[in-house]
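Case study 2.
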Amino acid sequence: MKTNPGGQISPENMFGRDQVIADYWRILEGQGIYVNDLRRIGKTQIMIKMHAESPEGWMSVKADLGRCHSAAEFATRAFKDSADVLGGKSKTLRTMEKWVGKLGELEIAGVLKLPGQQDAAPWKEVLERTFADLEEAMKDMGCRMVFFWDELPFMIDNIVRKEGPETAMEVLDTLRSLAQDYDRVRLFLTGSIGLHHVLAELKEGGYIGTPLNRMSHCQPGPLDPEDARDLAEALIEGERLICDDPQALATHIAELTGNVAFYIHLLISRLPRDRSLTNEDAAHCFEVQLVSKALDWDLPHYRDRLPKYYGKKAMPAFHVLDALAPGIPMDFEKIRNALAAKTAYPEEDLRKLLELLCSDHYLVKGADGYVFYLEIVRRWWSLSRQS
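Prediction:
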């Protein structure tokens, strides 16, 4: 197996996600799923594997919603993907076909238009008719459809920017309604930024909806240590790296990278090929990479996103993360005292800030207090804040 950081990993080369995927299919029997976790954790790869290996009785569609910038583009994507997958089964979306005609020259600027008209077809009706048709088609075929839709929050944010918050609110409410009304159609949604950030902005404009309250909220997290070690060992062998104890080196690489498959691929791709490697070599290479200007590690994202999504809470968030960067768990009182040395910040606001940092997967709260969710992010944060 060769390293391929950030590239397409074939489903058969994915390590350690079989149980997670089995759990997700079990959940989908009863309800939709919203998966939110840090970027690079493997959400999209899980989705790709589930889409490629759908069990008997399921059909699926996969799309990146981050590419949609309007409600009409989104509705058109849902319709076209549904028509494509059913076309392979000699089925059609009957009501939609009567309404918009055959697929062909029916698009204008990437959205559907009605025959004889130049204006885009009403997006909500496109979605509702598509789902109604899918429900009937799935009933006839004795199976179910799941939409694997990646990066829902980005699409909602795009719609806010282009068409305004009212349309974004309507899209969310429509999705909630469709997920409730059609039992044979399931939604599997993901997000790298929490939808709560987008919802917070919408609620300032009066939105009171809870669009995902009937969906199961899931967080895959890093690989189990054994699976991370096995992945690292397979990559060490595939890249023909020289070392005396491949398993020991693989274990050390898994620990350094926090058992995240993407970072395992990336670190191994950077290791020297011209000498026998030790654990110390891997650790040195890792530290060098963390402070390098290489953009593919994508770690500055965790610093740069704070001003955008946290606003006035960004600076207190920086102070909290700085206090936890040494890696020593801290309870609420210790964090409050550390923050008080930097700035005056109300106690209840700090509680809400800690909740937000946990929701965004910067932190987790354990028995001993708060710590960074990912060790690699903590190590990068600590090193980057020293300069």
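The mean pLDDT is 90.
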